[in-house]
Amino acid sequence: MFQGLVSGLAAGGTFAALGLLLTAMYRLTATVNLAVAATGVAGVYVMAALAGTGWPYWAAALAGVAAGALVSAGCGLVMTRWFAESGPQTRTAVSIAQLIGIIALAYIAFGDEPRVLPNPAAGRVATLAGVVVTQGAVVLLALAVVIGAGTSLLLTRTPLGLRLRAMAERPVTTELLGIGTRALTVTVWALAGALSSLVLLVVAPVRSSDILSLSMLIVPACAAALLGGLRRLAGALAGGLALGLLEGVLAGSAVVQQYRDVVPFAAILLILVWSRRREVWDASR
Amino acid sequence: MDLVLRDVTVARGGRPVVRDVTLTAARGQVTVLLGPNGAGKTTLLEAVSGVVPVAGGEIVLGGAALTGRPRTHRARHGLAHVEQGRAVFGTLTTRENLSLAGDPRRGLGLFPELERRLDVRAGLLSGGEQQMLVLARAIGTGPVALLLDEMSLGLAPGVVRRLLPVIRRLADDGCAVLLVEQFAHAALALADSAYVLSHGTITYGGDPTPLRESDAALKRAYLGDDS
Amino acid sequence: MRRADGPVARRTVAGVPLDGPVARWAVAGVLAAAAAYGLAAGLPAYWVFLAMSAVISGVLLQSLGVVAGQAGMVSLCQMAFAAIGAWTTAQLNVWGVPGGLYVWLPLAGLAAVPFGLLIGLPALRLRGVHLAIVTLGFAATVDVVMAANSFPGVSQGVVVGRPAGLTSDRQYFLLCCGVFALVAVALALVRRTRLGASWRALKESERATAAAGTSVPAAKLSAFAVSAFIAGVSGALLAGQLAMVVSRNFDPGQSLVAYAVAVMAGAHHAEGALVGGALGVLVSELLRRLGVPQQWANVVFAVGAVQAMTQGSGMSDGLRAALRARRARRSDARHADTGPGVSAAAGPEAPALAADGRRAALRIERVSVRYGQVVAVDDVGLTVLAGEVHGLVGPNGAGKSSLVDAISGFVPTGGGLVEVGGVAVAGARGGAAVHRRARAGLRRTFQQDRVPVGLSVREYLRFAARRALSDAELEEGLAGLVTAAPGDPIAALDVGARRLLEVAGTLLARPAIAVLDEPAAGLGHAESERLGAWLRRVPARYGAAVLLIEHDLDLVRAACTGVTVLDFGRVVAQGPPAEVFAEPRVLRAYLGEEPAA
Q1: Which of C418, C435, C222, C368 is nearest to A280 (CA)?
Q2: Cα–Cα distance, A53 to C340 (Å, whole number)
């Protein structure tokens, strides 16, 4: 049980961090960006490729983060260029296409051989009751908290955040005040790509090096985001941690272990149906 | 600077809802655009500020053509649009709403009653306060032309009486004000010139005095021909 | 693709017109069958295998065409349904259930149906992005379960057997083509029913679907059930093709790709699904021959899907629009005028109703609507007699639309009474569902354009009327109102025409009371006047009373015998238009208070 909880920390941090990104993006750009994990994967592979040619890890990682930001900004550009007036469903469908495209391009650029990724956070931080707490888990938890708190501070304390909140609420009115929303939107996308790359740089070495399965981290991330109703950052943070811990505990039992990935789906379904039980009708009037 | 519309046509869903509208909102004047609901007044304002595209015609502000330019460009050029329905950012505080537009003090100078509501979320303000806020916000952009859509909608008459002198003062300071109203009497009291829009076309344009003095013309525009 | 055929001399064979819709279908069927046989006989074995894959994926894409293309719900779990179908097939094979694939195919489809319903149930409350997330989660879940439990027979090395007559790939290819065609024809037939129309109506607006008397839950659940069935069958076909399937054949990534291809190709039409399936195979094969990585295919599909979404339509829509334009040009050359004559005097008039002792078509009492603290409608009562056209007017924000929402069942009436033709549909203990009120004879239109663009004029009118309509009835319903031929796609009409089409459909349902919400919005002065004259004769022509919500008071004066004026949610005047509009307080409601003089 305790071992399960500790081993679930890393997963929880990952789900929470990605869930936070999804939540922030949905609030600010009305898109459930299903490609957000995939942009991070692109960053990881750029890092791996550069590290393979002899770059020092930190330089390669920085370049990876920049690459993730660039890929994501490209996706954001497509959104603002052609889907600025579209509804959330269409924009989310576009992000599905972008997810497919990024995965495919990543396979083309980097091949589908599993590779060993450098892991700077492999060391142990502490041993609690015989269970090892890795640096990775701690870093991921910290990342999740930093992303949550940072996003919250950015939105409430900075002029950029003020404009972003205005844009999220009334994009047309914002433009009528002379504030360009395109650049703002692309900025959000780029930031999300950079942060996602950062998360995946830590998580990929311990979880998997497969492009597809890393990109599919979006599923538990969605569950985490939904625990916050796609609106509350704290909810997404808590939801992601809870899901990770639950997964860790379940992994301890041999019977349910192979089904532990079912947990996010069950969580998604229950939360959604309960929270939206009164949503009998679609758009108002 | 004058705001001039020449032969402006606006289509929605493939059908023109505003046809060949020509009007001038002169610098330093309050120009009132009247007409029954559904006549196309809001659509016309939206075309001027770039919320919807025009199907034909020209929009010129102070000699510079705005037609086809993005909304943000028009706004930076000095065009402010106060949308219908009190478009406050409800999750932002009054102060935040004002600071989006630039210097909050300019608007607050005209509406000092907003001072004590600065840290209240705009969604929690009363209807009158919200209307003051959007007006103050628009003034904060330092507009040379101001489009006002249905300012009195759903507001108590007392509040409307509070807002109208501010508009007069703005015009006196040199702003070109184009005021769209369904409720004609209050607006006419303020007008330097007036237009009536009906079924998407201008049916009256010019001196507001005849409209002020007799209800007949207005009645015809609003309640139809044989009343 | 049917359209009104004008009175022209046709070439016929045994009385069947060569250029009629039936003939077109027959010719298409014969050509398709010939093509399938030709491919089966003529292609090299390797290409037969590829063609088989293309057709099977075409079947899967048709399943997406139903739920995503027609009903507009994002489904990212079609491969999961297919996996369930394949798993069922493998299990039936291990058990040796008699009948072989011929029996297993439908059983595999049926096995997927409960899962379709399982996803459909939350879809009753979830839509848009939330539904996308749920279906993606379901896809991932099924993948996990399938990976944990190997497919039946795999560990023992039992392969899925094909029955006699299907053993060769060429024969099996023909079976796949047959299944594809069967699904296509079945869907084409469903398309003509109200059920099929209700799917496409859902995509436009759930509210309008319910207001047309169609149960939204039934439409959503049936779309998911049918889609899951077809996807399950495609999984079974795949099991038969590959003889042994594993969970890798159905990973969630493929569900995503299938969605993108369906969007790109326009899988809601059979030819779109086939093109999508063929592209999937051909692009891969082409890349393989060029020595280019296979993954470029997915890049192509991703770009194609984004491109299709910028257009708002897939390849099959473009193709059909082009064909239609060509046919229209040809038919224009033959006879200039295909549309119905538009005249205000068309249509026979029913005998006038007796002036007194009439029943109330609509009676409402004490109806109130509150949104939080705001009272939008305050204790309103009004009666519309049978045979009457009654106006409901008032300045913006007076509560007219809220009242209409309350009458039609979208918001509670606050305990107020709503009676349609003497039957209560809402009262102190709540009210009937929207679609039940519609079926009870209370129909409404919407202020916003809510007419489903995926339908033709004929399909829409049948859907709205909830009954079969003869061509004469169709023409009569449109006459004097909308200039459109029954075969025209609604997408080709402008917004004003769509709103009038909604009025036509509402009246063809012959309701007791038709509530028309600003039908004249966006019309010019002359058109608006014509509409007024037309509306006045609605009770005589359709036997329906009308409650007309309108800002254009000329139109109200022309159409209505009685008027109710709302201001700040309350009734301020009621009576004949001439008297009501002369009342000072009505003028005040419209023009605002006189300045204190």
Answers
A1: C435
A2: 74
Contacts of B145 in chain A (CB under 8 A): none
B64: Cα within 13 Å, side-chain hemisphere? 13
Average pLDDT score over residue span A277-282: 75
Q: Is A94 close to C306, i.e. CB distance below 8 A?
A: yes
pTM confidence score: 0.88
Residue C137 with chain A: CB contacts under 8 Å: 219, 222-223, 264-265, 268-269
Task: Give SS3 for C476.
Answer: helix
Q: pLDDT tens, A22-79? A: 999 999 999 999 999 999 999 999 999 999 899 999 999 999 999 999 999 999 999 9
What average pLDDT does range C75-104 have in this prediction? 93
User: Above 90 in pLDDT, residue C111?
Assistant: yes
Angle among Cα A258, A263, A267 to the nearest 5 degrees reads 170
Q: Residue A6 has what pLDDT?
A: 80
Among residues 295-334 of chain C, which lie with CB inside 8 Å of chain B? none
Contact flag A226-C299 (C-beta cutoff 8 Å): no
Q: What dihedral angle (degrees, nearest 10) is formed by the CA atoms of C255, C256, C260, C262?
A: 20
| CA pair distance C75, C78, nearest whole angstrom | 7
Q: Which residue from A minimizes the CA distance to B141? A: A177
Q: Contact B89/A165, CB-based, under 8 Å?
A: yes
Mean pLDDT of C83-112: 94
Q: Give the residue on A whose Cα is nearest the Cα of C305.
A: A97
Whether B221 and chain C come into contact, CB under 8 Å, resolves to no
Burial of C356 (0-12, 13-18, 19+ CB in 10 A): exposed
Task: With H, G, I as helix, E, B as strand and everything else as coil, classify residue C110.
Answer: helix
Question: Where do the DSSP E strands lie in A77-232?
Answer: 124-128, 131-134
Chains with at least 3 CB pairs less than 8 angstroms from chain B: A, C
Helix, strand, or coil (residue A261): coil
**pLDDT value for A285:** 53
